[in-house]
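Objective 1b. Sequence-to-structure analysis of Spectinomycin 9-adenylyltransferase.
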Amino acid sequence: MVYDWNTCPKDVKDYIMDLKEGIKNVVGRDFVGFYIHGSLAMGGFNPRSSDIDVLVVVNNSMEVEKKKILAQLFLQYSNSPYPLEISFLNRVDLLDWRHPCPFELHYSEAWRKRFENDLSNGSNLCINENKNTDIDLAAHITITHHRGLCIEGEPIDKVFPPIPKAHYISSIVADYRDCLKNITEDPIYCSLNIIRVYWYLSEGVISSKLEAGNWGKGKLQERLRSTVSKAVDNYTGQENHDFNEEELVSLRNYLLERVEEILN
């Protein structure tokens, strides 16, 4: 069973609202807004496997001490029970858009060990005053414009700039290339994401992974449809199919040929 913001269980909404209030307590007057993108905004949220994707916008650069307090909050909240992916963006950087976009602070489960090490060792390898960039933010902001939700704060179109198409493509193609390499290790995410990129490049549709999978079941070659159907079933939790390497490589190569043809 998958959900969007309007249909998701109460505990999902409570989790997000509590997280938002915790963030506001730390950020204080610099808080501009709290925005959801990704599967929960687009109707493909599976409580058993999906991330909760959040962008937070602030008015000024964040102090290291505040970042440490937020890091503790994220370590407490993420995976309890929903994994969190969140980026803090400075409004100044959004007004002066550049790609890749700078961020003030980022957390996902891939960063958990780095956050834990900084907090336990008193180091600043991850939690520091440096401003890093993330190529993925062009995609996150584009999706926020098209399908995202403002949970609290200023409206999306008043906060986020329009993202040039070339920057969006650069962002999704970077993820697509990772998926080409990792499809046998992470078949569900990578299969659906490669299809999503192909759908956008061929028809201009900004979609969720689930929407792309459902499209692929009807549009891709018949020999590939059973693989796509298995990915969709696993993503939604309807079934738990196994994949063999041959079918995944076949799907990857089919999409690789068509995507590269469009890009070139």
